[in-house]
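Design a sequence for this backbone.
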């Protein structure tokens, strides 16, 4: 099927992060396996085709840590499931949910899972920063990729500071990372996807009619060819992006609500 890339900036996204008890792991695995099948059957890749049209889609799974920045502190016993989606246009998001209601028999179970185990949900947040301002190939993430996710909630008074930080972070990502799979992760970490999105926080992310909190949310989603990409990314940030990395640690300490650096591995995408 023909596909057509698009520039990511400004495109709407969806992120759902869950912390699922081990007793529910098998049920969650089944749920997300059927989600991948549903997405492949009902969604177009890229700008060609009818809504819903995807520019990026992945599900990742991993063990949750007591302290995501210090593995020595052990695991919680829960499993993380992280969904990251980017759509071609605003109309594709409601089309996605309409398709799920009509074609995915597990949709009620999925909503129940979000209600019981949800750690973060945002729907429709536009891409603020990404790897390139030009047209990019759609749906480049593959099963087995390593991931890095961070979500932030900050007061309106911190919006300008956060925007400036992520603009600097975008430059760092563009300067020191690549989509070339033959590169060396210790020198130029190999990305398979990258975006940061932003939106006003809703009182109920599933129901915009309930209004806003007055805060802003920022979501960072990165996937790498291998775990060495994540470790290389962190090492290069510390050595070559000193003030920016210090700012990252500061803002993450202040405002992060979900942090998963290298904890989850991609288990579902649009690729075979």
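Sequence:
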């Amino acid at each position: 099927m023909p596909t057509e890339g698009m520039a990511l900036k400004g495109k709407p996204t969806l992120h759902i992060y869950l912390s699922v008890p081990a007793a529910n792991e098998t049920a969650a695995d089944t749920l997300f396996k059927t989600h991948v099948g549903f997405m492949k059957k009902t969604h177009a890749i890229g700008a060609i085709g009818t809504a819903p049209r995807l520019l990026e889609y992945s599900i990742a799974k991993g063990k949750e840590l007591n302290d995501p920045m210090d593995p020595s502190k052990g695991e919680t016993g829960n499993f993380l499931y992280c969904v990251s989606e980017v759509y071609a246009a605003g109309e594709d998001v409601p089309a996605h949910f309409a398709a799920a209601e009509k074609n995915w028999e597990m949709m009620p179970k999925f909503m129940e899972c979000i209600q019981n185990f949800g750690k973060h949900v945002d729907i429709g947040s536009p891409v603020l920063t990404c790897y390139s301002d030009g047209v990019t190939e759609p749906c480049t993430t593959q099963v087995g990729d390593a991931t890095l996710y961070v979500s932030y909630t900050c007061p309106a008074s911190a919006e300008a500071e956060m925007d400036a930080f992520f603009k600097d972070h975008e430059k760092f990502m563009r300067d020191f990372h690549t989509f070339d799979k033959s590169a060396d992760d210790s020198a130029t970490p190999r990305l398979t996807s990258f975006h940061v999105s932003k939106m006003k926080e809703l009182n109920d992310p599933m129901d915009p009619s309930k209004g806003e909190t007055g805060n802003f949310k920022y979501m960072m989603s990165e996937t790498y060819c291998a775990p060495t990409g994540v470790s290389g990314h962190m090492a290069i940030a510390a050595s070559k992006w000193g003030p920016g990395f210090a700012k990252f640690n500061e803002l993450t300490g202040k405002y992060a609500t979900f942090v998963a650096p290298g904890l989850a591995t991609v288990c579902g995408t649009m690729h075979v």
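Helices lie at 25-42, 92-103, 107-117, 159-176, 227-240, 242-255.
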